[in-house]
Amino acid sequence: MAIRAWLCILHSTKWLIDHCLASATDHKGFSQGLRLTGAHTDSPCLKVKPQPEMLRQGYFQLGVEVYGGVLLNPWFDRDLSLAGRVTVRDSQGQLASHLINFNKPVATIPSLAIHLDREANSSRSINAQTFLPPIMGQQTSKPDFRELLKQHLADQGVTNLDAVLDYELSFYDSQKSALVGLDQELICSARLDNLLSCFIGLQALLAADAGPGQVLICNDHEEVGSASACGAQGPMLSHWLQRVLPAEVNRYEVLANSLFVSADNAHGLHPNFADRHDDNHGPLLNKGPVIKINANQRYASNSETSAVFRHLAEQVGVSVQSFVVRSDQGCGSTIGPIIATETGIPTVDVGVPQLAMHSIRETAGSDDAWCLARVLQRFYQTRKLGA
Q: What is the CATH code of the structural domain delimited by 45-173?
């Protein structure tokens, strides 16, 4: 029988396997290979430093560290909130971790007035150390940030706390997502890269009929190179494959018949900067998902895996676009080449086109997510690729 798996790594590094290991000795359901979709959960942001407290000119501020390749200008003059994970010790001396979210604006990073920097629109560069500490309010003495977190946890009902030992906290834009445009054809939101792909992959998996081994993996730390225990370069996926397919000969046969779809948003053609794209490879929003190709293997797509994806898209009536970076520009990358290298699974890199990638607020097409989900649903329930 076909074995269906949901494998997901979140920021907490926990992972779930649904009904796989009980049937791990029966590999008949895997004879036609696995159908894997992968995305990443992290986005560029500002993370709070371990000793962040600052009191300057009567303003309480927190020191922050830049995570990933952040487009910094849009972070100014935003209503920022704070969320992440806090590790505490209770009154019995036991350690525990809790998710925390302030769920309201608690900080802002005000711009310097144009009157005080007449060159701001032409030559200002952002110093991440001095320009970015968010203002949390006005104080006469420097608060203890860990005590503030302890109080917030208590307000959430987490009592019996002795101390907050450590945390991983990020600032985020508290503005809600919105449908934008005269016909609401655009999605504007934070962290579309790449939570949109995580959502698309999950929706496709849940909607798919039973098929070959169906897997969704969502890794952390893609924006900083994927080299972590819960990143794509870590051992988690390989270890899982070894547990589900303990016999090496069988495992290699299954992986050779598998396909990994690396889903990560693509650079859509910006109407104000069309010259930043190759003339023949400027994906348009709401014109379908994008196959990403790079001769230097920054993307893992090849002619065979791209053809399979195109074939699947044709079967569900979805148009497909292609993206190739200009030959005089550098190319980003995804978890696709890493997974392909670590496992040997044939891989294709795809994604929905978007604008303002790595900004605090990004833009995508409202139709493209639905189209990619349809293709991935077809992919999950296809028993023989290329048929």
A: 2.30.250.10
